[in-house]
Amino acid sequence: MIPPHAIRRSLLLALGLLFAGCSSSEEETPVPDAGVEDPPTGDPKVLAGSFQVLLVASTPASGGSPATPGYTSVVGKVYDGAIPSQIVWEKAAQSGDCQLLTPRVPFCNTPCGGSAVCVENDTCQPYPTSRSVGSVHVQGLRAASGATEFSMDPVANNYQPPTSVDLPFPAFSEGDTIRADAAGSYYPAFSVQTRGIAPLELLNSTIRIEQNQPVTLNWKAPGQADLSKIHVKLDISHHGGTRGMIECDAADTGSLQLPATLVTQLLNLGAAGYPTVIVARKAVGSTTIAPGRVDLVVSSEVEHAVEIPGLVSCSENSQCPGGQTCRADLTCG
Fold first, then answer.
1. Residue 233: which of 220, 213, 250, 219 has the closest Cα?
2. Residue 62's pLDDT band (boundaries 50, 70, 90)?
3. I need a labelling partner for 80 at 20 to 30 A (CA). Which of 127, 247, 258, 307 fits?
4. DSSP conformation letters of 297-314
5. CA-CA distance, 304 to 283, in Å (whole number)?
């Protein structure tokens, strides 16, 4: 079982994985209506915004905590530029649909300050500013009341459904069209749509990571495999300072094998306490506006504990055998 402190996701921070640390602004200067020409479109390779629909499964009662029902989370945000990252992930190896990535932290002789990030050696990139795109009308999600559409108004340029909208798990059926229409404000109006997916059901009871052995992940295949892709992230060192990870983008067929060569290389980089793998089913629709691409992502993900021979995870000394102590990376030694 993964202890509470080892769960890295926060549902209200679903976009934080993408936009964490970015500045925001509530000051808006609407783009004037040119009237005679289409608004400019940016580079589709630059991700400038995202609206994410996440299926959050129910959790059973555990350790004195009550069970929680499943629900569907919706969050969104749009920026006026690309999102800088303090870490550069470099491909160390690839096999099939999977690759081993290792982190590199660039160094800038002149500090970038609080308004920018060092994204390459001696290269600072400013944080973008969040922008309003007006009221966003969402269609294709069924609320508990039976309504199949609702509108989201920006609050400090963040988008979430009104508190009166209760979205159950799941709030759509596989194959349903899900659409978001932005009325426009700082940027002109735009629309983006994708399709509903089946909730992801991971079938592995245990996932064991060993030298020179592949790792096979199994999940319940969807009814419509062409709607979605499977994304895998295996990170076994995040509590000790991430040293590398395996990422895979694969067809949603019900099974994926992580190659033994990549698994061995990842183990050789080192492991920390409470290692996990995240498996996600995603359907993505996109459109392009002036600063870049805006995605509508529908996803269902499972985070599963990983077993590594000889590694004992801990949060306190009493969990360690034979007088060992619990170290800073949450392993016994």
1. 250
2. confident
3. 247
4. EEEEEEEEE-B-TT--B-
5. 21
